[in-house]
Design brief:
By secondary structure, the protein is mainly alpha-helical. It has eleven helices and three strands, in the order βαααβαααβααααα. It is 75% helix and 2% strand. The protein has a three-stranded mixed β-sheet.
């Protein structure tokens, strides 16, 4: 192994699931199917929410942003993952690796904040229904969306800038199916304790603040629902929030377990499995969760498909 103190140049080797070759083909087909569903589902949501005027509401504006995020997030990971699984070459260039972990972290961080923004939107819809369109006006929606994207990319820039300067002494074997930031940091041949501590604080902030906003929003929603006398009103409020709660539980449940557990308890195989859940499975399920029981989307699909057939 090389021992030069290089921090740039050269290819990385993505180990992925090559230690379990009997599972690679099955897993690659599973990932390909999920990725195809992700592409179709999220492109459909983006298209319908733009083409149908009834979906020009704050909820679908934020859902459109979530779909763009999910599409970009999976596309930054899955094609390279499938190429490595199907080919004998497990390499990724230095520049490709740096771009991959920067983009993946930026989009993942953005989704953390966007889900909190969507919780606030649901709070206003349930607790202030008569003032909903006044409060969640387009200018505020665009501002909240911009804040989500900006904070996500700022967090990624902060953490990536700490990692990129660390010397690796020729260590290029990445025990994951993509260039995950923490794995890249662990390749360093110097003490990474201080860097990892700073990154941990950044991860806690980008997770804790949105989670606090989500919990506060749903506590207020729960109080409002309890005070409702109409069973129909309670059912409507639950239907309004159920999809978002399912998406939040799936995303935050896996990501918090993966990134906030003590490193002594961290299993790399476990980490890969959880990464598949929140990077590939969650973006696949999100369009289904939001549209399966959504009457507005079904009406939009019927209307647009009817026009095309006509």
């Amino acid at each position: 192994m090389e021992t030069t103190n290089d921090s740039s140049g050269g290819d990385f080797i993505l180990v992925g699931f090559s230690e379990h070759p009997e599972l690679e083909l099955i897993l690659s087909l599973f990932v390909l199917i999920l990725y195809s569903i992700t592409l179709v589902g999220n492109v459909a949501i983006i298209s319908f929410s733009i083409l149908d005027a009834r979906l020009h509401t704050p909820m679908y504006f934020f859902l459109r942003n979530l779909s763009v995020l999910d599409l970009s997030f999976t596309t930054s990971i899955v094609p390279q993952m499938l190429m490595n699984m199907w080919g004998g070459n497990k390499k990724i260039s230095y520049a490709g690796c740096m771009v991959q972990y920067w983009v993946a972290l930026a989009l993942g961080s953005t989704e953390c904040v966007l889900l909190a923004v969507m919780a606030v939107d649901r709070y206003v819809a349930v607790c202030w229904p008569l003032r909903y369109t006044t409060i969640m006006h387009p200018k505020l929606c665009h501002l909240l969306a911009a804040a989500s994207w900006s904070s996500g990319f700022a967090n990624s820039f902060l953490q990536s800038s700490m990692a990129i300067v660390l010397p690796r002494c020729g260590n290029r074997r990445v025990d994951h199916f993509f260039c995950e930031l923490l794995i890249i940091v662990k390749l360093s041949c110097v003490d990474t304790g201080p860097t990892e501590s700073k990154m941990f604080i950044a991860r806690v902030i980008i997770l804790a603040v949105p989670v606090s906003i989500i919990l506060t929003s749903y506590v207020c929603i729960a109080r409002a629902v309890v005070k409702m006398r109409s069973a129909e009103g309670m059912k409507k409020a639950f239907g309004t929030c159920a999809s978002h709660l399912m998406v939040v539980s799936l995303f935050y449940g896996t990501i918090m377990f993966l990134y906030l557990q003590p490193k002594d308890n961290y299993s790399q195989d476990q980490g890969k499995a959880l990464a598949v859940l929140y990077m590939i499975l969650a973006p696949t399920l999100n369009p289904l969760i939001y549209t399966l029981r959504n009457k507005d989307v079904k009406k939009a699909v019927t209307k647009i498909m009817g026009k095309e057939q006509a």
